[in-house]
Amino acid sequence: MANFDITIEFDFIKYLQNLKFIERANKTLINRNENVAEHSWSIALMSWILLEEFQKEFSQILNIERMIKIALIHDVVEIISGDTKAWDKNKISSEKQSQNEHEAAIKIFSNLQTQAGREMLALWEEYEFKDSLEKKIIKGLDRISAAIHRLDTNQGWLDVHGTTRELDKIQLPRIGFSNTLLYFYKLLIEEAISRGLIENNGTVAQLDMNNIDTVNIEKKYKFIRKSRELKGVLRHVYSSKNRKENCAEHSWSIAMMVWVLHDSLTAEFNKSTDLLKMIKMCLLHDIPKIYTGDVSVWDNYTLSIGEQYQNEKTVLVNILFRMLSKSLSTEMKNIWEEYNEIKTLEAKIVKAIEREAAALQRLISGQGWDDVKATVKELDIIQLERVGFSKTLTEFYEKIKLEAIKEKLLKF
Predict the structure, then answer these.
(1) Which of 177, 218, 360, 394 has the highest count of CB atoms within 10 angstroms of its CB?
(2) What Å distances lie between residue 98 and 87, 146, 330, 408, CA to CA?
């Protein structure tokens, strides 16, 4: 019989939200420092988008579920250890940093004494200590992602007195094994030089063009850069008292919630749901909002839900997915439509968790529900229509509600 006491999972998910407060050195498009949660969403999405290229380049099938999961948790330790800047000349030795972060990983993931918690620690240790191809790809994407941000935001490298040769020293040890990543590097460094964002004193990067589809990579390069605009699409809830949550960090958050709660949901429904597909739904579900903006469940809609769906689908099909290969765009379209049609158990779970995440954020940030003049009754209506099918998710909502009442953030 399933156990619906999810106190451990609830506390762990609340703790994970601290990753939204850990800032990185690079800027976002809205001129604030990127946080580690939205960065992790970027890396997970990039690994999915570039999977075809990596499999073709290395002539092997890669474990995309493992890659995405590593991307989602690779920097969770920074809740304790903080972010280490690649350009920081005063940073501690890599050995000491690795030791500190391993201690942090054990401390954090030991708080989730479930199969998911054990898997997270094992994947983090793979990322840090082992030599799998999947780990090397995520390490490479992690490093090149910061460079793309510096390009997109016009931050460049002048603030760190960076030159192309110095950038080589930072990038090539991580990306040099892959011609796919090296071609990304070629594209961004050429643009950075042409725009005066970095001092050009030559590059030693060696690229073999024979084993890569440059046309396809360039399209995906554009998609990846466009997707980062989601970090500037603000939601109706706050991540802290002085900053609204954005759709990218929200997408990371619900992907983690799905993963953490998966064991309990499997036990409840006595069947294994497709975790990888649900995580992909989380990564993808808000992408059209780059163009359409976010709509709060508390708003008085000017468009029907059907009209919103059609508007977002039009954006996906006619603009965003045209940057991708046919096979990937078909996969993403099918996953996005399944999520929005809410006919499968996986889609129902993700939709419910997406709704609960907003309530959790209002609790954590102290925002409460006064701004929407909502009481327990109104919140019950909004939440239970989505979570009521699941005892696990209903129990999760009840914990949010009880804490909110206790903290005087929600009234009867």
Answers:
(1) 360
(2) 17, 20, 40, 42
